[in-house]
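Final report, Chapter 2: Outcomes

The project's central promise was a pipeline that accepts a single protein chain and returns its three-dimensional structure in a standardized token representation, suitable for archiving and comparison. That pipeline is now operational. To close this chapter, we reproduce one record exactly as it appears in the project archive, with the input sequence first and the structure output second.
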Amino acid sequence: MASLNAAREFNIQDLGAVAPGYLADILLVRELGKGVPEAVFIGGSLVAENGSYLGEEPLTERTGFSDTVNISQLKSQQDFYLRVAPGHTGYIETSVLAPDPVLPLFSKLEWMKLPVTNGAVDISEYPDLCFMMVANRYERDGKTIAVLKGRELRRGAYATTISHDSHNMTILYRDPAAAYEAACALKESGGGICVVDGSSRTLLELPVAGLMSLLPIRQLTERIAVIEQAVYSVCQEGTDILLASILALACLPCPIVTDVGIFDGLSQQKIENFRT
């Protein structure tokens, strides 16, 4: 009844019931909310039974939504340094986004005096800091670098093209060379999640729009487990592999990082990297 009522509410005429004229997408279960369905029917055809897939072979060719990672603005590791004005030396007061103490997924703005080395902000002596880059991947050239605090990344780089809601490329990193390697890997693979830790690189390929995989679900589950362990290796055990995806969500009512700058989600005002 729940599915039928929901379908009626949205004026969907062919879903929500097992009856003539309705789409025959059906799960057969022994008990609601528990266990694996005993059988799955799609369009009236049996496609799975007792946990085994019986349907057609999955897609293996790339779709029309491949090659969506266009990041021509990232040409070398030099593009991953947070540059200061020419000639500036010593320290510079820098905007830093830290976890909100009440809602840790949200960020709050802090200002820190950070050292400048070779014309760029240097966080090498601050293990609790990392950089975050959001780079437009739709041939619009935008990119923004921010400094994060307390976001668990300890070394290397972690990059993803799952980045709500614009799904730009988002990279957390302490090492610009690792960040560039991760970005290049995602460009070559068509998107996904990539972790670079020293000489080790782990890649989950999501070639459909940089968001989805063509692998069968069991194989994909195994690959997700591998990339989770890679994220743990550069962050900490239990770090959500979608952490970077949430930090770029532009509708959050807090400081957020976009491909066109850092903004306060409440006031809609731009936050500069530096202040004097």
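Archive annotation: The chain has a mean pLDDT of 92.
This record, like all others produced under the grant, will remain available to the consortium after the project formally closes.
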